[in-house]
Amino acid sequence: MPAPEHDQLPDIAVGHHPDFGITATSPRQLAANAWMLKGFDFHPVPGHSALYSLADQQNDGQGCATRAVALLRKAGYQVDADIAFDPSLAS
Predict the structure, then answer these.
(1) For residue 13, how many other CB atoms are within 10 A of its CB?
(2) Can you give the residue ranges of every domain in the chain?
(3) Distance (Å, rounded) from C-alpha 24 to C-alpha 52?
(4) Which residues does residue 45 pair with via DSSP β-bridges, in sequence order?
(5) CA 50 from centroid of its chain's CA atoms
(6) What 3-state DSSP class applies to 91?
(7) Pairing state between β 79-81 and 12-17
(8) Which of 9, 38, 50, 76 is in the most buried spot, having the most CB atoms within 10 Å?
(9) Would the pLDDT of 1 be above 60?
(10) What is the pLDDT at residue 6?
């Protein structure tokens, strides 16, 4: 469920991990967030409880991650994203 405006932690953060590539994390570890991430083809990283890696990153991974950020925000989620995946900064 989306976070209230006054909360400091984002619902989801999307970025680049040195070992796993394009990843998302759910700092609150809510089941709804995990369900949403799986719907965007992010899958749990074994041994990292709140970390999800984008599947098939070589096939327009940046575009997929950027679209996921845009759609999650449109759905009311508070999403932090690296510059490369932030649709509001796209040229």
Answers:
(1) 19
(2) 14-89
(3) 5
(4) 48
(5) 11
(6) coil
(7) parallel
(8) 50
(9) no
(10) 47
Q: From start to end of 1-91, where are the E strands?
A: 12-17, 21-25, 42-45, 48-54, 79-81
- Using CB atoms within 10 Å of the CB of residue 1, give its burial: 0 to 12 exposed, 13 to 18 middle, 19+ buried: exposed
Of the candidates 18, 15, 29, 35, the residue with the CA atom closest to the CA atom of residue 79: 15
User: What length is written for the chain?
Assistant: 91
Q: Retrieve residue 7's tokens.
A: 């909360």
* Cβ-contact 34, 1 below 8 angstroms: no
d(CA 36, CA 52): 11
pTM: 0.87
In tens, the pLDDT along 37-48 reads: 999 999 999 999
Is residue 32 pLDDT above 70, yes or no?
yes
**What is the rounded radius of gyration, in angstroms, for the C-alpha atoms of the chain?**
12
